[in-house]
Amino acid sequence: MLRLQGKVAIVTGAGSGIGQGIALRLASEGAQVVVDYVGKPEGAEETQQEIEHEGGTGEIVQADISRAADARAVVDEAWKRYGSADILVNNAGIEKKSDFCDTAEADYDAVMAVNLRGPFFLAQAFARRLRDAKKPGRIINISSVHEDMAFPGFATYCASKGGLRMLMRDLAVELGPLGITINNVAPGAIVTPINTALLEDKPKLNALLDKIPLGRLGKPEDVAGLVAFLASEDASYITGATFVVDGGLMRNYREQ
Ligand code: BGC
Questions:
Q1: What domains can you pick out in the chain, each with its CATH number?
Q2: 198 lines ligand 1 (CB under 6 A)
Q3: What is the mean pLDDT of residues 57-61?
C-alpha cells in the first residue's frame, strides 16, 4: 500500500539536492507533488520528469520564497492546481560563508529570508488554509545539525536554523489544536549543491569524513526516507521534535 496515496505535498527547493530527493520519494509513496524552485527551471523539470516516469504527478511552481508574497503564492498554487494540500516541506535553504566580523548586512538578510522568513510565511499560509477547511496537516522543516551545533564562519546560517528550531517548537503548540503537526529534520553533511566547495576540497572533506562515525557523507535519499515517514500516518502523534540524520556527526566528540 502506498503510504501517501491521495495526499498533496508542497516541497520548496525541489529542483536539486535534498528537496529533489524528497519530492521523488513522496511521489513514489503516492503523493501528488508541488515542485517549487527559484532559479533553475531545468532542475524542477528534471524532478517533474522523474516523478512522471515513475507514474506520479508533479506540478512546477516558480517562486522566490524569501518574499512573503511569493511564499503565500506557492500555497495558493497548490490549492489552485490540486484543490488542497496535506503536507508542507520547507526545504529551500542557502548558506553564505564569512567571518562574523566581516559579515555583510545583505548576506544576513538573504540567509534569514530564505531559511526563516520563507518557512514562516509558507507555514502561515498553509495553516490558514487548513484551519479554514478544518483539515489536518503536516509541516516538515529541513533544518540542519546547525540548529543546535556551532558552525564557525556561518553565523547567519546558525541563526536562521536556530530560529527555525524555535519556530517549529512554538508552532507545534499553536497548531496542535488544529490537527497540524510540525517537526524538523536536521541533516548533517549531505552530498548536494550547497556543499560543492567542500566536496571539491579534498583535505577539508577528509577532515569532515573523519568526524562522521558512519564514515560517509549522506545522500538526499537518507533524508527523504525520514521525511516520508514523518508525512505518513505512522507519525500522526509526533510533533515538536527534531530528527537528526547525520551519520553520528553531532555526537562525535573525541579527545585526540
Ligand atoms: C551545511 C553543510 C555542512 C553540514 C555539516 C549542513 O547544514 O549546509 O555546509 O557541511 O551542515 O556541517
A1: 8-246 (3.40.50.720)
A2: yes
A3: 98
Which three three-digit cell numbers place residue 212? Answer: 562522521
Residue-wise pLDDT tens digits, 129-138: 999 999 999 9
| 145 CB near ligand 1 (under 6 Å) | yes
Ligand 1 touching residue 95 (CB < 6 A): yes
CA–centroid distance, 193 to ligand 1, in Å, is 11
Closest by Cα among 170, 66, 72 to 118 = 66
Q: What's the CA gap between 73 and 61, in Å, rounded?
A: 9
DSSP letter (8 states) at residue 185? E
60 within 8 A of 48, measured Cβ to Cβ: yes
Cα distance from N-terminal residue to C-terminal residue, the chain: 49
110 Cβ inside 6 Å of ligand 1? no
Q: If you take atom 1 of ligand 1, which residue's CA is the nearest one? A: 189
In whole angstroms, what is the distance from residue 190 CA to residue 19 CA? 12
Residues labelled catalytic:
157
Distances from the Cα of 91 to the Cαs of 1, 63, 144, in angstroms?
26, 13, 10
- Cell numbers placing 177: 489544536
* Strand-pair partners of 33: 9, 58
Q: What integer pLDDT is reported at residue 256 of this predicted model?
A: 63
- Four-residue CA torsion sign, 63, 69, 71, 76: negative
The whole-model pTM stands at 0.97
- DSSP state at residue 135: -
Task: Say how many Å lie between the CA of residue 48 and the centre of ligand 1.
Answer: 26
Classify residue 245 by its DSSP letter.
E
> Three-class SS of residue 166?
helix
- Per-residue pLDDT for 31 more than 70? yes
CB 52 within 8 Å of CB 25 = no
